[in-house]
Amino acid sequence: MEYQPGKCGKSYRMIICRKLIDVEIGQDKLWDEYRYFFYITNDRVSSAEQIVFCANDRCDQENLIEQHKNGVRAMRNPLDNLHSNWAYMVMASLAWTLKAWCALMLPAPPGRWRERYETERKALLKMEFKRFTNSLIHLPCQIVQTGRRIVYRLLSWNPWVSALLRLSSAMRLAMRY
């Protein structure tokens, strides 16, 4: 439908999406509830479905910006001059990039577990930074130096440990070449 705000001289295209939601407690359905989502655009060529998908893709970018602001805290500079603040923001962005690199380097070899490995890779790529640090970085580890090698013993377990071990073996192979 066409929509023109009160003090605006130009009209826009409004797309209204109505979703039916079943409100339940346990297995009992209480009532039906409708939610309305409004999309306002000046694009009159694309279909309504394309506009909705484009807006949802943009939401992923907004989530990425929010993670930079609050997850890595790249925009919360505690320092007193612009150069230090710039360096702090670059370091925080590099930490975020490290998370993405880890997800993209995570191997998913063909075979029985390929589908599971692919879902782990996608989940790691979309994971919030705080959860990433708690799941993969802040793991207690005991380092034992023996005669000719160093042994790392993980002292706790979480569901991401297998992905971390696959990632470490992939990185070790990449460093050899």
Structural features, described:
With 177 residues, the protein is an alpha+beta fold. It has one domain. Helices cover 49% and strands 23% of the residues. It has helices at 48-71, 82-105, 114-126, 129-137, 161-176, and strands spanning 2-3, 12-25, 28-41, 141-145, 150-154. The longest helix is centred in the middle third of the chain and has 24 residues, at 48-71.
Strand line-up across the major sheet: 1-2-3
Query: How much is the radius of gyration in Å?
Result: 24 Å
Coarse shape: extended
Mean pLDDT: 84
Query: What is the string of helix and strand elements?
Result: EEEHHHHEEH
Helix content: 40-55%
The poorly predicted ranges are none
Distance linking N and C termini: 59 Å
SS elements, strand count: 5
List the domain count as a whole number: 1
Secondary structure tally, helices? 5
Beta-strand percentage range: 15-25%
Helices and strands, with pairings:
Layout: E1 2-3, E2 12-25, E3 28-41, H1 48-71, H2 82-105, H3 114-126, H4 129-137, E4 141-145, E5 150-154, H5 161-176
Antiparallel strand pairs: 1-2, 2-3, 4-5
Helix pairs in contact: 2-3
Question: Top keywords for this entry?
Answer:
extended, 5 strands, single chain, 5 helices, alpha+beta, 177 residues, three-stranded antiparallel sheet
